[in-house]
Amino acid sequence: MRPDFFESKLDLKKKNEKTTQLSDQKELSLQYPRHPSKPQLIPRDLVVLDKMSSRPSRHHTSHGGGSVTKQLDRKIENLVRDYYSKLSSNNSNNPKPIPNTNEAIDYVQAHDMGLKRLKRNQIEKSVTKAMELITIEVGGTAGENEGAEEFDSDFEAFNEAVDKDNNSANKRIVEMWSKNQASSRNTPAPETQIQPVDGDASQQLSKDAQTPARRKRERSSRTEPPVKKQKIDRAPPTSVSLKDIGGIEHILNDIHDLIDMPLNCATCYDHLGIQIPRGILLHGPPGCGKTMLANAIAAHHGVPFIPVSAPSIVSGMSGESEKKLREIFEEAVKLAPSIIFIDEIDAVMPKRDSAQREMEKRIVAQMLTCMDDLSLSKTGGNPVFVIGATNRPDSLDPALRRAGRFDREICLGVPDEVGREKILRVLSEKLKLSGDFDFKRLAKLTPGFVGADLSSLITAAGTFAIKRIYDDLKVRHQIGTAEQDEGVSILNGAMEIDGGPGLANGKPNPILEDAPNPFPPLSPEELEKLSITIDDFLTALPKVQPSSKREGFATVPDVTWQQIGALEAIRKQMQLAIVKPIAHPEIFEAVGITSPAGVLLYGPPGCGKTLLAKAVANESNANFISVKGPELLNKWVGESERAVRQVFMRARASQPCVIFFDELDALAGKREDATTEATSRVVNTLLTELDGLSDRKGVYVIAATNRPDMIDPAMLRPGRLDKALFVALPTAEERLDIMKKLTMKMPLHESIDLWKIADDSRCRNFSGADLSSLVREAANSAVEAFFPETAAEPQRIPSGPITVCPDNFEKAFGMVRPSVSEAERIRYMQINKKLLGY
């Protein structure tokens, strides 16, 4: 520690304050005269008032200890003053003695028992403060007389007196520090750098004191001016209109009521005191046209359009997300009438009960507040509409879906055959199609396709059409090859020369030869012949997977009634229960039949129950959802029930729709025989979905099982699966019909009698699956007999046609056994009688 430790910035500040304090201290010295040889202490209260008049003293600034610390400092200061007075009176030779810190602490603790209990370091801080204040007062009074005598004559001489007095006071403080250095205990070294005491130092101190603020101003002046926020164009879209969207005729009336009327008749709503609709929620599977519909609505009405991507609202700073949302609504109110479109709204506004972060709860609360402020009285009589789009409406907070916020919910489901045909016609308006293009056929072949899937199909078909025209040109423009020694070949306008990329070391390179040739430009005549045909669409169809298939929809199988033998009676019942209500719903509504029937197919395994459901789905041209019973079961509580609800929710969003439950007994067993509560909850969910408060209009249910006795009886009551159809083992005549369908494409020997095979006693309990296995084994036997037993030349294929002979069927009979025994057949007959009630 250096001797100039006390020459700190605080001392320099105090010296600068002397200039303003000296005149007032002069008046105080006149009021309280001093002895010529002894220093006279000015009363403490007056000194404090004197210092506070210009700037609060260090003694009276807050140190973080509150009033208790101030009282302690005041008490110790009074005791130190008493100690200094006694020390001055006892030492006549030195009227201004320098007190010792340790002695002063001992004096203070000896004269106050309360202070004696405190720690020495606590008292030492207060004693040091008091001694600094007394030292400044004593040094100042000595210089005041000299300064007062010269004050009236010359102000410069006064400044010199002040500097001289300050230096003398500093010398005394240094001397006092030297005496206390030996007895000080663990005095920490100062961390700040000490500046020399002179006039320039005081100026430098004041300059340094202003450095942080000055530095901040300099940084702000050096930085580039803030970039003005670019104004975003909120003009309505011009690239889309309602005419460009097909299959939305059923929702145009809702759009008219919710947006057209409030925009054109806002004064009528205000006059009648009716609140205008504020929000519309569009929901449906991905790719069904929610975003396109919102843009078309804004373009149709010509109002400002504010598109918002829900994830763009989220910010990392607390409160920024809510601020962004408020700014969006404030901008919409300024531009009113206007439309706010929030895409994927479920991403940032989920249910608050299941929200993972507090930020999501705050965003939902801010959204609720903003939507409540969209009344006509707060928007200047101009309506502001909010359109939200989501694939998961059930994930939204319920408070958003109540009346007054998102008033109406419009479902854009998977289009039916008629809707797909309209969408295809709209998408193909600018395409060059062949003259005999069949839209109805293509719409029938694309079940489960939404608008985005159909657009992708058109793109793929166009690609295949371009490939097709180039393949034709390659054949048409190929002019042959040149001589081998010249090594020149011309193909489609491309040339290859010896030593070029097509040859390596004078030999052909098969890898480079197989590389595709570049496509030459087409002439106007060739472009005129280019068009997309239905065959191009059929070629591209297997390459495009509908998005609804990922959502649980199955592609409608290509099984027709012509491929199913027998089962004529069941076919008529299925057509009456499923196919005809879908094809002609108005006829059934005319006779009061509005609720679709549920069909339960039961019987021995392999009798064609699943095949019947596939044929019905194909003939009805409806959307088809295939559910394997066990696939909905989940080990987590509530997940199985949620899976059942989602199946029916997807079906209601894609009316008309056929739901096929295969192996229903695994999903809806008897509740009294259930080993766990999970099975009962799944059955209860199925019952409520089949015939509960939810509307099942347009949703048809087909279930199949080979254990109807295990299904809960409540599933079979009227209104649910009320039509139970028994698919029994085929008779001899039905087996003959099935054999004819199975061998339709099989080369049979002319000596084969199918009736003889169908009427064989060994086929008594054969099901349709057993007959299919019999035919397949007979074909395998014929293929095995076609090849020679000893293959000396394994690559040689025998000449002549291959046919299936009676011997092949005899060999197949020895390999195939009926899957249903006689006892099981009798048991199924008894179950059928029990279900029929006799």
From TrEMBL:
Family: Belongs to the AAA ATPase family.
Coiled-coil region: none
Region of interest: Disordered: 1-42, 51-70, 179-240
Protein name (Swiss-Prot/TrEMBL): AAA+ ATPase domain-containing protein
Regions of compositional bias (Polar residues) in chain numbering: 179-209
An annotated Gene Ontology molecular function: ATP binding
Record domain AAA+ ATPase: where: 276-416, 595-731
Keywords of this entry: ATP-binding, Nucleotide-binding, Repeat
Biased composition (Basic and acidic residues): 1-18, 220-234
PANTHER family documented for this protein: AAA-FAMILY ATPASE, NUCLEAR VALOSIN-CONTAINING PROTEIN-LIKE
Gene Ontology annotations of biological process type: ribosome biogenesis
InterPro entries noted in UniProt: AAA+_ATPase, AAA_ATPase_domain, AAA_lid_3, ATPase_AAA_core, ATPase_AAA_CS, P-loop_NTPase
GO CC terms, sorted: nucleus
CDD domains the record matches: RecA-like_NVL_r2-like
Pfam families listed in its UniProt record: AAA, AAA_lid_3
